[in-house]
Protein 1
Amino acid sequence: MPGRRRPAAAVPAVPSLWLDTAGPAPAPRPRLLGRLTADVCIVGAGFTGLWTAYHLRRADPTLRVAVVERETAGFGASGRNGGWCSALFPAQSMAPAMRAALSATIDDIDAACHAEGIDCDLVKDGFLELATTPAQLTRLRAALPAAAGADAGAPTGESAPRWLDADQAARLIRVPGALGGILDPQCAALHPLKLVRGLAAAVQHHGAELFEHSPARRIEPGRVVLADGEIQADAIVRATEGYTAALPGVRRDLVPIYSLIIATEPLPESVWAEIGWNRRVTLSDGRRLIVYARRSADGRIVLGGRGAPYHFGSRTSPAFDSSPAVFEHLRRTLATLFPAAANARITHCWGGPLGVPRDWTPGVSFDPDTGLGWAGGYIGDGVTAAALAGRTLADLIRGHRSPRTELPWVVNHRRPWEPEPARWLGINAGRLLAAATDARENRTGRPSRLAPALDRLTGH
């Protein structure tokens, strides 16, 4: 279709800190018009899709690999997340078995960055999960053996999670009222958009084709139907995470849950000295309605959390990337955790959807009979998990058996979410229940009786 105008790139409703600090945008990539034949077609140019393409081409340069993306590479959660690269896994029953592979993947990402010349501000200083109430203290103490991956071949000694008392925790970060916490060395902080842009360039350098502004309308065995074209391929990977519900046939596989983030202005050294946050340790606490914080490479506090509503019918929209009420809640949380930064100017507020499966367990799958594969449902812990998923999919597609293909998250199917309106009622009830559980525990100092109901709702 010569002469057809290419549409302007969609942008998030609120520009992120990462978008403002990633440097110049890469040169525009072509839109796929017409028909193309490939060995492997990957739908989605976030971390999952790009790592899959990267490892396929590295393992077999003869494969023709095509990646198609609705917007631009890294447009979704891969380029907008909090910038944690951790060994965390949301399914407690699988976490010990997954920990060793995820820990090794953090180092694999670092090695790939060095090999490909990707500067994404990666620093591996660990993750500190604090207990700021007696109820959180009880919960985190009980969770420590599972976090350490006992008897699962996970890192031990200095590489394993360990308990810090209040004084030891304060030597890393001073948070008022902190009673202690778990220090997990297996976590790095990075600039996610720099990583995803560098990875996209590396994928092209290694010979994969990357098409942007090429939305998939339908995925079926042997064929991906696009808005203005079609790709025929023996193997097809769906790597669409929080945007999966837009595709027919998989609308109930993953629901989009919004996570929102704020960032302060660069803070003076006097403030950092008062907080005592000298290393780039990432931080959370034991509350149910998750918050997460980190120190950026340019000296800001970046703090995110859940709390935004789920939208009926699994809808996504740039308008949902912003919620004044949630941003204000995050600002108050920042002031509570870091009083020295309470008056800091908030320069960036942004958000976006992440993918959540019904069983709250990320998964990877490839069916050699149909040639269809997928990975996702990372529930916000996707920077490392997506890299592991991509390498695992590359193994599965090539028929290569490896320790990765034997991991318990490699599955054949997953339980779908309930139809509406049950889905809307249940998910938003869980969000309100999590907030109520935190409020009751903060008020009484004891574990809430609401907690078992919340655990049943979230599959824990």
Note: The chain is about 30% helix and 20% strand.
Protein 2
Amino acid sequence: MSSAADRGGFSTRTLGRTGVELTELGFGGAHLGELFETLGEDTAQATLAAAWAAGVRYFDTAPWYGHGLSEHRTGHFLRQRPRGEFVVSTKVGRVYRAPRDPATYATAPWLGGLPFELRFDYTRDGVLRSFEDSLQRLSLNRVDLLVIHDLDAGYHGDETGVAARFEELDAGGGFAALEELRAQGVIAGIGAGINVTGMIRRFLERFDIDFFLVAMPYTLLDQDALETELPACAGRDVGVVIGAPFASGILVTGEGGNARYGYESAPPRVRERVKRLASLCAQHGVALPAAALRFPLGHPSVASVIPGAVSPGQVAQNVAAFRSAIAPRFWTALRDAGLIRPDAPTP
């Protein structure tokens, strides 16, 4: 819920039961790992500086983003700021090492990134190794939040693969290690990254999760998580961060050209829906990105939205969109047009 506290110009919300205050607008660090385009170090640092100057004080990153590059860049910036003035989250589930054949190693699917190769590991040893490695890449001696990353069929092939990774996390001691870090006060909250519906309930049935970082299933385009998963979060005071408020791009670019949805070329049905959304936005004088950033915060469990950026200009655009005033009648019009679910809470 909204907090009276304020960091650097943005209101904050408490993340579930963690006690951690997040700025409603955060910074997602995936694109600092050079997913779709490379960027120089000066540009990366200027992008982070622009977010800080605008008042953003929550920064999310992960070892996966550019095979360590995003953590290096994020940490280089944050280690020069007062530690009490920002919140940082990173993730566990992948451990990195030098490639067996450096001469032929490729960083795919990242366009750029660093030349290290990963193995998935959700066991106790894997979680602790990932955590310690992240601290060193970040040049920080603590992080605020740790997220179990990408434990779903998209990364582990099928149900057999997912079940095996859940066993690593459970019987293999990975989650127990996270609980120990939380009990010791080393971290303030344990999260899980969610790419598809169905996984929130599955985590909650097995583990004492504090929050979820939801990448796709709850945006202006998709509200399937309202069926059972977000109600389950609300019932347990489990917080939510929205990690892909632009649905990986199409809610910024619109439906034309190389529009991306779910990190791939957007299919026709999605393009058509975005076209209708953009038309209604234009009728009400609302920018599509502004609607996309503000919509998820209508849900009481959502504490922050964390769009990415690859330039100071993109940061400025995100900030301006977030701060745009949107009249209540716009949300009513969306509902009346069938463009959001009837039960979708709005700002």
Note: The two ends are 12 Å apart (CA to CA).
